[in-house]
Design goal:
The chain is mainly alpha-helical. The protein folds into two domains: about 90 residues, no CATH class; about 45 residues, no CATH class. Helix content is about 65%, strand content about 5%. A two-stranded antiparallel sheet has the order 1-2. Helix 1 crosses helix 3 and helix 2 crosses helix 3. The longest helix has 19 residues. The radius of gyration is 30 Å and the shape is elongated.
Length: about 150
């Protein structure tokens, strides 16, 4: 269950140290007594960390984040980990996969000289097992010996 936008803003203000004293006490009481609400606060915190690491916070939010949230060593470590993770992910290039058409796969298979043993029982993954033709294997072995 996701927090309504106005509750999410209250949690964000709390995490940034911008909530009023009564609001802070009410927030702490609620998340200490309500596991579901605690999990929502953690989700907002993760989103806040991600937004900080990606540079998506407003200048005011960034200032509050750095002054209040990062004042605690463990939270500062979380923020630095998030920044390192985002930096690493941004450097990675997406993997390009080229699909080979079935006709090309079939012709490539034929060019290998391998044959499917028709007497072989199919393994549980239903893929045939390729075995070299005995004759071609024997003739190649003879030619290599000469």
């Amino acid at each position: 269950m996701e927090l309504p936008k106005n509750n999410k803003q209250v949690v964000t203000r709390y995490l940034l140290g911008a909530a009023a004293a009564e609001e802070q006490m009410a927030m702490e009481e609620k998340y200490l007594c309500d596991q579901g609400f605690f999990e929502q606060v953690v989700a907002v915190e993760k989103e806040l960390l991600d937004n900080y690491a990606r540079g998506l916070l407003s200048p005011r939010e960034r200032e509050l984040f750095e002054r209040h949230y990062m004042a605690h060593p463990k939270r500062r470590a979380r923020a630095m980990t998030a920044c390192a993770l985002v930096s690493t992910l941004d450097r990675l290039q997406p993997l390009e996969v080229t699909l080979v058409p079935e006709s090309v796969r079939q012709s490539s298979w034929a060019e290998t000289g391998l044959q499917v043993d028709e007497n072989y029982d199919m393994p549980s993954n239903n893929r045939p097992v390729a075995v070299e033709s005995f004759d071609s294997c024997r003739s190649e072995t003879r030619s290599n010996r000469k």
